[in-house]
Amino acid sequence: MNETPKVAIVTGGASGLGLATAKKYTSSGIKTIIIGRDKEKLKMAKEELGDLAHTISFDLNDIDQIPSLVQDIKNEFGKVDILVNNAGINLKKEMLEVSAEEFGKVLHMNVLSVFVLSREVSKIMVDQGKGSIINISSMAAKYGIPKVIAYTASKAAIEGMTKAMAVELSPLGIRVNCVAPGFIETAMSTKAFKDEPQRKEKILSRTPMRKLGQPEDIAEAVYYFSNGSADFVTGAVLVVDGGNSIGF
Fold first, then answer.
1. Can 25 be counted among the known catalytic residues?
2. 56 - beta bridge partners?
């Protein structure tokens, strides 16, 4: 007989890459807790994913409440085996027009909340003697992309934080890795490319595989880090981009 199902937390798991990851987890028999803000999207995700999916409506900007959120999860589910830090916000604006407040808001959500949630979940994982944390980065951490200065800073921080977390937590049994998605075909990107068709052409022209990725491509990479296949992998940043970052 197999052991009790693993328990995973996926932030921003009600849509896009997070939903694809939650779908991969639940279809693999992993009890998956989706944290998000949009109650309607959470409800739809739960209906789609079934009994192994559990939803929590919570704003991760509310840093002070994260410890009690994690304690509630521990009390209800008994453990946390996997944490996927997927939730994040973007701001598209000329650098010269970005206010300090706007910049800080992006870092608060994309970096500070990731740190606090990871710290609290790590306490549970240390007691268990094992766990896997997967952070989600972006091509913005690899390139100088115009008009996304705050988002770029936040994702560069995520990659640095992944390595620092791995060094401290791996001796305690917790592996920490990162997935850096390339340009993925989602509802959001499809809308953006409709407004800027030349941008899509530019992306495809420098992508050796000559196509956009699918949300499932990212879900598979995240799953790799969280199952037995990656037991000796920590502090890694896996780029899933069809070769875009090495294309010329």
1. no
2. 35
Query: Is residue 247 domain-resident?
Result: no
Nearest to 183 by CA among 215, 158, 157: 215
Q: From 235, 245, 240, select the one nearest 180 (Cα to Cα).
A: 240
pLDDT digit string, tens, across residues 178-188: 999 999 998 87
CATH of the domain at 154: 3.40.50.720
Domain holding 17, by residue range, is 7-182+215-240
Each residue of 153-202: pLDDT tens digit? 999 999 999 999 999 999 999 999 999 999 999 887 888 788 888 989 99
Asked whether residue 194 is domain-assigned, the answer is no
Instruction: Single out the catalytic residue among 25, 143, 151, 224.
Output: 151
Residue linked to tokens 């932030």: 11
Structural domain count, the chain: 1
Q: pTM of the full predicted structure?
A: 0.96
Q: Each residue of 107-138: b (16+ CB within 10 Å) or e?
A: eebbbbbbbbbbebbbebbeeeeebbbbbbbb
Task: Give 1's contacts (C-beta < 8 A, 6+ positions apart).
Answer: none
Look at residue 74 and tell me if it is in a domain. Answer: yes
